[in-house]
Amino acid sequence: MEKEVRVRFAPSPTGALHIGGVRTALYNYLFARKNNGKMVLRIEDTDQTRFVKGAEEYIKNSLAWVGIETDENPDLGGPYGPYRQSERKDIYQQYAEKLLQDGNAYYAFDTPEELDAMRAKLKEAKVAAQTYNSITRNTMKNSLTLSEEEVNKRIESGEPYVIRLKVPKKEEVRLNDMVRGWVMVHSSAIDDKVIMKSDGMPTYHLANVVDDYLMKITHVIRGEEWLPSAPLHVLLYKFLGWENSMPQFGHLPLLLKPEGSGKLSKRDADKHGFPIFPMDWPDPESGDVSTGFEKAGYLPDAFINFLALLGWNPGSEQEIFSLEELAEAFSIERINKGGAKFDIEKAKWFNQQYIKQKSAEELSGFLKQYIANASVSASESQILKACELMKERITFPRELWTSGSFLFQRPETYDGKVMKKKWTGEAVAVLEDFASSLLSMEEFTAETIKNALNQAVEKNEIGLGRVMPAVRLAITGLGSGPDLMSTIEIIGKEEAIDRINIAIEKLEVKQS
RNA sequence: GUUCCGUUGGUGUAAUGGUUAGCACGUUUGACUUUCUAUCAAGAGAUGGGGGUUCGAUUCCCCUACGGAAUACCA
Asked: Which residues 340-399 in chain A have a CB closer than 7 A to strand B?
């Protein structure tokens, strides 16, 4: 029987989950779904100094917003819990001890100052920038250089210490990455990483390996920033005797800033005025709220679709995918190796496509809010028709109102340019006839309205094109917008006639 | 500095040891006697550089350039 696929998303609650993290979660989710596997959400909160209140909640809310569901997590629990690393402290201790016993790890007593001094010294000598490795460890204060008696004495006296991994001097460490293929690193390039901190908490490396093993994770899909430490993790699996159940690794390409180079950061997002977090995030220090994709008007399915295609492609020319379809089409082999520059324009395009796909009913909720805020009245049928009419030409739900408020409110101002050029005597004559024929109409639809206008135009013997802008101006105050006949239908007979009369009264006819 | 990873138009990407190097976003132009932010049509625009291997390389190999990541008692 084949082993069940188990993946995990393991964020640390140090702030808002950013878009790169969402993509990592998404790829894990898609991979699990594709393979009928399970996905675990594990909170990596081993650094108590960086803990941010509300961050865990934020992560969960964000995943929920985009529709990523996990099978095992801190709230739901599961067979391999707890799913918060801070609640697993005792577990790590025993594995650290095993490493110690087997001679694969050692105690170190160096103070931060001593470490800094060593770093500085190495830098000056222009040697490799590892402060603790198979060479330097011989000159530092640790259980390899100190006598057993001395070590015990220090530990008993309560002197702070860490546990470091004893990385072998000469060894090829290799791993077969699912997206990059074979990656080989010589162990001399890896330093003696701290695996247990002086506060008794494990560092990422130990906690991660232990948890992935205990939670029976089969595939580790994570960001490229982890690639350099992956060999270290391989070493850890080996030392703990878990080589045969080591998960497969897949390191995702980074999301890059739109221009120039570098990893996409909040700074870049602010600079270009686009969000970087899925939902609003109030900075815990300054209190400044960063607008998230949700508030900015992005639909979750559009957002996910956009994100999925940033670093992966289906191999076909299809671009619009529901979450279901993504899960069906997804494959690790088609993940790109190179980093992807973030392009908000494409995100907007996806949003527009999704808005267009939505039904008027689905969009009406957005419009109703704006209508309520503006305290104007509108019938259900007007709202639905308005959504239907507007959805073809907008990118964000808010534009239902910002570009379509004339459907519910009389114009207060009139576009000066159009007025100057198109508000002519002949146009006004047509409008007068048009208004009076509207008055006698029984069936009030875009089609009958168009007939009425055509008649008025014919009667005055001028082209439709010469009066259309004036009609639009009278009705909406604008020079452009959606189909005018449908607009008039939504506005309604009496209101349309009123607006025409008001415009005729208010606007000055162009002198010619 | 060192180690690792990467490099197809402005952007996301496809493909291939021989093609007019495909698609999408964006952009430009035109059309739509009702405009446009919509729609339709057309256009411009790419294999970083140098060496090999080969009849032939964007594709395989090497070098180089450029970019990125890591190098914390952070994840």
From this structure: 340-341, 343, 345-346, 348-349, 392-395, 399
Q: How far apart are CA A227 and CA A95, in angstroms?
A: 23
Between CA A424 and CA A25 the distance in angstroms is 60
Write the pLDDT tens digit of every residue in A386-396: 999 999 999 99
H or E element that contains A302: helix A300-308
| ipTM (interface predicted TM) | 0.93
CA of A343: nucleotide with nearest C1': B11
Q: Is A353 helix (H, G, I), strand (E, B) or coil?
A: helix
Please tell me whether any atom of strand B lies within 7 Å of the Cβ of A498. no
The pLDDT tens digits for A453-464 are 988 888 888 888
Side chain identity, residue A322: S
Distance CA A240, CA A170 (A): 19
CA distances to A23, A27, A226 from A63, rounded to whole Å, are: 10, 12, 22
Instruction: Determine the distance between A224 (CA) and B6 (C1') in angstroms.
Output: 11
Can you tell me the distance from the alpha carbon of A458 to that of A460, in angstroms, rounded to the nearest whole number?
Answer: 5
Pairing of strands A255-256, A340-341: parallel
A86 and A300 in contact (C-beta within 8 Å)? Answer: no
CB atoms within 10 A of CB A328: 13
DSSP A169: S
Give CA angle at A412 (A407, A416), nearest 5°.
105
| Residue with smallest Cα–C1' gap to B13 | A313
Strands A248-252 and A181-186: unpaired
The answer to whether some atom of strand B lies closer than 7 Å to the beta carbon of A324 is: no
C1’ B53 / CA A244, Å: 40
pTM as predicted: 0.93
- Gap from A317 CA to B23 C1', Å: 6
HSE, side-chain direction, 13 A CA sphere, residue A293 = 28
From the CA atom positions of chain A, what is the Rg in Å?
32
Query: Catalytic residue positions of A?
Result: 266
